[in-house]
Every structure is written in structure tokens, then in C-alpha cells.
Amino acid sequence: MISRVPIEVRDANAADLDAVAGLFLQYLAFYEHAADEQRVREFLRARFTSDDTVLLLAEPDGQGPAVGLAQAYRSWSSVSLGPVWVLNDLFVEPAARGTGAGRVLVQAICERAEQAGAIRVSLATAWDNVAAQGLYESEGFARDVSFLHYVKVIGC
């Protein structure tokens, strides 16, 4: 386990591709989703060149190597008539869990969303990911009791 040191968050960029890809592959494995490394790298390269995402890295003492990542996508709410962010990906390496890395990543996404004028940040997590649920709830997220969310997988 990584000792408890201050965790700093920064924007990821194309020069971080190796670090982000390594963390992202672990994230996909956590959710039992096998992925080809080359496909992951292509996906991440596209995120670095687009303006559709905010991708953050967490580093102990701001020194690296990165121990966690968060990725949020900018979207819109038609009902609320405003911008929203979707915290789509949050992952912290097992050895760095308990250091506060996940918390500072969530806080950084929320702060940036607020600065950008978003009216809310939404997210989803697995039913059995109790640790993440506890983190989200302690940061002010609440389970949606107004809407049911549905998913239809297309051609995959």
C-alpha cells in the first residue's frame, strides 16, 4: 500500500498516454471487461484530441506515477436547460486505495464542473461497488429516486 501522502490532481494530456492506458486497462479489468490495449490507446488518443472530456490524474505528492484517474463527459439536460457533467470513469489502483486519491478526484471533477457552469454531475456505479457508493454519498451524491435509467447495448 502507498503511504498516506498528499494527493495532487492534474489534467492528463497526450504525453500521459502510457500512464492513463495502464490505469484504464486496470479499470476495465475491475469491471470484468476485457479490452484490447491498442483499442484502449486509440480511444484515449481520441479523448485527448477532442473537447468532449475532462480527464484527470491523481499523483502522490504531485510526483507520479499516477495512481488514479477520473474522466467526465460534458453533456446537456434538456429538462433543466443547462450543462451537466457525467463522471463516467473513476479508478484508483488497489495499492493506493485508502489514500484519499478517489476522493480528491471526485472533488476535482465537481469543482471543475461548477467552474464550467454545470448544473450537476451525475454518475453510475455497480450495485456491488459498496466502497465507491460510500465515497459518492459522503461527497453529497444521492441515489436517483425520480428516474429509472435504462441501457440498450447496440451491436456489441
TrEMBL record:
The keyword Electron transport does not apply. PROSITE patterns: GNAT. GO terms for molecular function: acyltransferase activity, transferring groups other than amino-acyl groups. Keywords: Acyltransferase, Ribonucleoprotein, Ribosomal protein, Transferase. Signal peptide: none annotated. Residues 7-156 form the N-acetyltransferase domain. InterPro entries: Acyl_CoA_acyltransferase, Bact_Acetyltransf, GNAT_dom. GO terms for cellular component: ribosome. PANTHER family: AMINOALKYLPHOSPHONATE N-ACETYLTRANSFERASE-RELATED, AMINOALKYLPHOSPHONATE N-ACETYLTRANSFERASE-RELATED-RELATED. This is Ribosomal protein S18 acetylase RimI-like enzyme.
